[in-house]
Design goal:
There is one protein chain. The protein is of the alpha/beta class. It has a single domain, classed as 3-Layer(aba) Sandwich (Rossmann fold), CATH 3.40.50. It is built from 6 helices and 7 strands, in the order E-H-E-E-H-E-H-E-E-E-H-H-H. A 7-stranded mixed beta sheet has the order 2-1-3-4-7-6-5.
């Protein structure tokens, strides 16, 4: 299970005096290196959107933290045999998210075993993602993480909470959390669109200050997940 195996890349966190959960590395990830696994799902949504976002975020983490990363993302489906090799899943897209019953059960088991999921609201994702998470954890409710939560201060400080990167419906950005007992297992960056800020600068014409904020917030989420 995810929480029961050590990996060399987590040793990089020791110098920061953190006490991380323990995960196994992906088979295709170089030894001692962390990466993010993009979650491929059915339903018609473009799970592959913002293709330069994760490599740019991983590069930023490599350059601004002590975590050893590879800048190549992995891609994984919920029923893949190596799902539990990845401690950190990322889900995004504009369209419908749909899991079958086996995938719901696998996602539940992955998260209950210590895995972490970051879902990033890329306009059009919200309704279907909330529906599928309600199927996965029918008795759990989303909790808004306030600016005082340590996820906003795990490496960079965000005293006003989640930054607004791209406009959707004119709503304020929220970082929502789903807890399994007392462990934050899923974070959902809603009405922010961090991935647009991680993309190559010319793709969405995000101003440099917002792009930097997006990369810093993404790094915070990763570092927090690796240390809890």
């Amino acid at each position: 299970m995810i929480g029961g195996r050590r990996t060399a890349w987590l040793l990089a966190l020791i110098s920061l005096c953190w006490s991380p959960h323990i995960f196994a590395q992906g088979e295709s990830t170089p030894s001692g290196m962390f990466t993010i696994a993009r979650l491929q799902y059915g339903g018609g949504g473009d799970w592959y959107s913002d293709p330069s976002s994760l490599p740019n975020l991983l590069r930023f983490i490599r350059d601004h933290t002590r975590v050893a990363v590879t800048v190549a993302e992995e891609r994984v489906e919920l029923l893949d045999k190596d799902l539990f090799s990845y401690p950190y899943l990322y889900l995004t897209g504009h369209g419908n998210v749909a899991f079958d019953d086996r995938e719901v059960e696998r996602l539940r088991r992955y998260l209950e075993s210590g895995g972490f999921l970051h879902a990033d609201d890329n306009y059009g994702l919200d309704e279907s993602f909330r529906r599928e998470m309600k199927r996965t954890f029918p008795f759990s409710e989303w909790v808004e993480l306030t600016p005082e939560h340590e996820i906003f201060h795990s490496h960079f400080n965000f005293y006003e909470g989640l930054p607004k990167i791209h406009e959707h419906d004119g709503k304020r950005p929220q970082l929502l959390g789903l807890f399994i007992e007392d462990r934050l297992a899923v974070v959902y960056s809603y009405e922010s669109d961090l991935g647009d800020g991680w993309e190559d600068a010319e793709v969405h014409q995000v101003p440099p200050d917002r792009r930097l904020a997006a990369l810093r917030m993404g790094a915070n989420i990763v570092l927090w997940a690796l240390s809890h």
